[in-house]
Amino acid sequence: MKTLAELQAIREKMKDSVIMRSGSGNVRAVVGMATCGIAAGARPVLSALVEEVNTLGISDKVTVTQTGCIGICRYEPVVEVFEADKEKVTYVKMTPEKARRVAEEHLKNGKVVEEYTIGAVEK
Amino acid sequence: MKELSLNILDIAKNSVKAGATLIEIIIEDAGNRRTLTIKDNGCGMDEEFLSVVTDPFTTTRTTRSVGMGLPLLKLAAEQTGGSLGITSSTGADHGTTVTATFFTDHLDCVPLGDYAGTMSTLVQGSPDIDFDFIYRTDSGLKYLSTAEMREILGDVPLDTPDVLLWIEDSLNAPPEEES
After folding, report:
1. Is residue A10 in some structural domain?
2. Contact check, Cβ <8 Å, A2/B169
3. Is A1 contained in some domain?
4. Residue A96: CA atoms inside 13 Å, Cβ hemisphere, count?
5. What CA–CA distances, in Å, run from A65 to A21, A45, A61, B166?
6. Among B99, B102, B103, B113, which Cα is nearest to B171's?
7. CA-CA distance, A49 to A55, in Å (whole number)?
8. Which of B171, B39, B178, B37 lies closest to B113 in space, CA to CA?
9. CA B172 to chain centre
10. Which of A49, B28, B55, B145 shows a CA-CA span of 20 to 30 A to B163?
11. CA atoms of B161 and A47, how far apart (whole Å)
């Protein structure tokens, strides 16, 4: 088992940085995590998003959260991106690889990855 | 569901939705018998709802009238020769306990899978709820207590990326030997 001392070290490390509470970012990426999403592979998609947002150093502006059934189960795993004053973007049939690309191109650089959106997939 | 850990994630989310402040997840492997218990102190279910809760056409979701979570767990247990049991109370000691037994040597027993990923996902989704996780096998014990973590972390939220990684590493490390 990992030791609790390592947790203590995390606390020490965090002491000097501003702690961001979830919900404080301007951009929200929401992953559908109901039975449908989980069965379709939402858990690794969420992990990839959380990890990539952290790696890219954009956790001050991007919040990754979970929600229940979005209502389009056949398109799961679904990731919705909300940004103030912008239309919601719905990414469908996501994978961890696609999630990392969305993190880099959309969440970080503000450019929607059109080919993964529901509009492109429905055509 | 491809792994039991995904069922666990799914069922524990019901506990979150029921307003639980403490969710206990216990897996015990003894010989070929695996017992999974998910216990919460949420709002509970009344007798009427409890009697129909494993019916796929019973659900609290509003997007459609089908709920597959408990039926899928029931199927996963019964297809190994095991069973599913649920007790619930809406009284002063409100809460729900879901217990499922599996026979792990049965051909149709799904693997336990990535329970560490399930626990970090649960904590990421509900950093203010307490989770107790215990996985006991013949070779030892793995456990996680968010209440204990909170004491050490102080103001640092549980959904901090480093903390989520710690959870996964901690549960993926070899088990402690029980004295």
Report:
1. no
2. yes
3. no
4. 8
5. 12, 12, 13, 19
6. B113
7. 10
8. B171
9. 17
10. B28
11. 10
CATH number at residue A59: 3.40.30.10
> Token pair for residue B143?
């456990």
Nearest chain A residue to B157, by CA: A21
- CA B34/CA B27 separation, integer angstroms: 7
Which pLDDT tens digit goes with each residue over A50-89?
999 999 999 888 999 999 988 899 999 999 999 988 999 9
Q: Is A120 helix (H, G, I), strand (E, B) or coil?
A: helix
Cβ separation B1–A38 shorter than 8 A: yes
CATH architecture designation of domain B4-172: 2-Layer Sandwich (3.30)
Phi, psi angles (nearest 5°) of residue B12: -65, -30
What single-letter amino acid sits at B172?
N
Please tell me the distance from the alpha carbon of residue B140 to that of residue B178, in angstroms, as a whole number: 6
* Residues of chain A neighbouring B17 (CB-CB closer than 8 A): 68
Please give the Cα distance from B40 to B25 (Å, whole number): 9
Residue with structure tokens 């909300």? A82
Residue A104 structural domain: 20-122
Q: How far apart are CA A39 and CA B3, in angstroms?
A: 9
CB A39 to CB B1 under 8 A? yes
Task: Using the Cα atoms of residue A92, residue B167, residue B38 and residue B3 in order, give the sign of their dihedral.
Answer: positive
Phi/psi at B4 (5° precision): -60, -30
Residue A23 one-letter amino acid: G
Distance from CA of A114 to the nearest CA of B (A): 26
Name the domain count of chain A.
1
Determine, for residues B142 and A1 on separate chains, whether the beta-carbon distance falls below 8 Å: yes
Confidence at residue A123, expressed as pLDDT on a 0 to 100 scale: 72
pTM comes to 0.90
Here the ipTM equals: 0.86
pLDDT in tens, B2-54: 999 999 999 999 999 999 999 999 999 999 999 999 999 999 988 888 888 88
